[in-house]
Every structure is written in C-alpha cells, then in structure tokens.
Amino acid sequence: MNFKLEDIIQLSIEAGKAIMDIYTDPSSDFGVEKKSDASPLTKADKASHEVIVAALEKLTPNIPILSEEGEHQGYEERSSWSQYWIIDPLDGTKEFINKNGEFTVNIALIENRLPVLGVVYVPAKDIVYYSEVGQGAFKRENGEDVQLEVNKNDKKIVAVRSKSHANPAEEEVFEKYGSTESISVGSSLKFCMVAEGKADIYYRHGPTMEWDTAAGQAVVMGAGGKVYAGNTEEELFLYTKKDLLNGSFLVLG
Ligand SMILES: Nc1ncnc2c1ncn2[C@@H]1O[C@H](COP(=O)(O)O)[C@@H](OP(=O)(O)O)[C@H]1O
Ligand SMILES: [Mg+2]
Questions:
Q1: Ligand 2 center to residue 209 CA distance, Å?
Q2: Which of 53, 173, 215, 245 is the S-S candidate for 118 at Cβ 3.0 to 4.6 Å?
C-alpha cells in the first residue's frame, strides 16, 4: 500500500468535521433535496464528499474513486479496476436529518470484489472503527485504540436492523438464529455493533447500495465476523456487481 491506514482515518475525521459544522449550525436547514431514487441528500453529504475526494485524489492518484455523491462509473469501467475506493460520505442521511446521531462516514478499499480496508467514522460520537483485512479491527474512542472481536458467547442472540428501512421479512431470519431481541440502528453502525459484540446478527432484506456496506463489512470481517449474500451461509457477499444495488445480506458475529 502506498498510503497509511492512519491517513484514511484522519481523512474520515476531517470529513466528519465538515458534516458536524452543518449538523450543529442552528441556522442551517441542511439544504435537504430529494435524489432521483427519492432518497434525501443534504449539504453535509456534499461537503463530506468534497473533502474525501480531494484528499484521496492527492494521496492515491492512481486509485479510482466511486462515491455515492460522485460519478457512478459503468460496470465496464468498474470491472476493469484492480482496486478502488468506495465511499459513502454520509450514510444514514435520514438519521442526520432526524438529528439522532446515527450517521457515519464510510471509506473502503475494494480488491477482487471484497473490501480489504474499511473506515467507519461516527461524527456525532467522535468514534472511529477501522480494519485492514488480516490485521484485526479496532475502535478508536477518546484517543484509545481497542481491538474488536465479535461475540463468541451465544447465550443471548441480539439482532440489529435498520431504523428507517426495516423489513418484516427480517424477523423470520432473526428467529431462525434464536434471536429474541432486536435493536434498530441507522447507517453502517449495525456492522460495527456486530464487530464489537453488541449484536450477533444483522440481516438486511431491503435494498442498499455497495457504498453503504463496504466499509462496515471490512470492520466486521476484521473482528472475525462473516457477511453472506441472501439469508443463508452459502455465498459470500461480493462487490463490483453489474448493478451497484445490493441484494439482501446476512452478517454474523
Ligand atoms: N430504496 C432504496 N434503494 C437503495 N438504497 C436504499 C433504499 N432505501 C434505503 N437505502 C439505503 O440504505 C441506507 C441507509 O441505511 P439504513 O437504513 O441501514 O440506515 C441509505 O444510505 P444513505 O443514507 O447514505 O442514502 C440508502 O443507500
Ligand atoms: Mg448510505
């Protein structure tokens, strides 16, 4: 790697600062717009995107960037990349607008259809989750780095699901794994909760995009978790698909 993971961590924090400037500005209306898929977009999504893209273009000029708020390159181009950055500058835009703090900055590096590095920053809590695959996953809080490990104690199975986009079909899968309790959380924080053992299972039935899941997947994999496509443990959940839209997926601690 011709960059340091620490550079990417610092960059996620810088992007988070740009988000918080807007989040905490009492005079800001967030500039909420509706995108073509009816999902919301704010000034904060755009500000974070600008910070990340400008820095990555300097840091790794030879690595292509796919950002939710940038150009969505076609499959022919994407499939020719040996590695690329995939960015969700502000995941959980609905949670940002609802001011519940459950939103994240997501930066991941994809190689061979899987994330090999991921950083998830939680601006409202100033917490970073990060992982370079094969080197463990970590949480940085109050200047301290703690290694993460999924929960190996299966006495009580806690499920986690979307706060704004939960689907009734998820309950069946949670029950199949013996879960009796589910928590609703916005954004890629759900992957991080499985990574730190606060939840054991995250099954997502409804749609997400590749940039919503890549960084979180790196973190949970680094902590010993697994991410599967669909609702069984048969197929790995892969990236660089023809369509950037993800199918359902299952995260297990
Ligand atoms: N109908 C839809 N199609 C595609 N993605 C959707 C969607 N509804 C929700 N999402 C994705 O779900 C993400 C939010 O995840 P969650 O529900 O776990 O908080 C959104 O990220 P953004 O907030 O970055 O737009 C969005 O990409
Ligand atoms: Mg998102």
A1: 7
A2: 215
Core vs surface per residue 33-52: b (16+ CB within 10 A) or e: eeeeeeeebbbbbbbbbbbb
The question of ipTM being above 0.95 is answered as yes
The pLDDT tens digits for 33-68 are: 998 888 899 999 999 999 999 999 999 999 999 999
pLDDT (tens digit, 9 = 90+) per residue, 127-147?
Answer: 999 999 899 999 999 999 999
Delimit the domains of the chain by residue range.
5-148, 157-252
Ligand 1 atom at minimal distance to the Cα of residue 165: 17
What is the average pLDDT value for the chain, to the nearest integer? 97
Q: What ligand 1 atom has the least distance to the C-alpha of 45?
A: 24
Tokens 């500039």 correspond to 31
The atom of ligand 1 lying closest to the CA of 39 is 25
In CATH, the number for domain 157-252 is 3.40.190.80
From the CB of residue 175, how many other CB atoms can be counted at a distance below 10 Å? 12
186 ligand 1 Cβ < 6 A: yes
Closest residue by Cα to atom 5, ligand 1, is 208
Helical H segments across the chain, by residue range: 5-23, 43-59, 75-78, 93-97, 169-176, 189-195, 210-222
pTM: 0.98
Considering the segment(s) 5-148 as one domain, its CATH architecture is 2-Layer Sandwich (3.30)
Ligand 1 centroid vs 161 CA: distance in angstroms? 12
Confidence of residue 110 (pLDDT cuts 50, 70, 90): very high
164 pocket-lining for ligand 1 (C-beta < 6 Å): yes
Annotated binding site: 68, 88, 90-93, 212
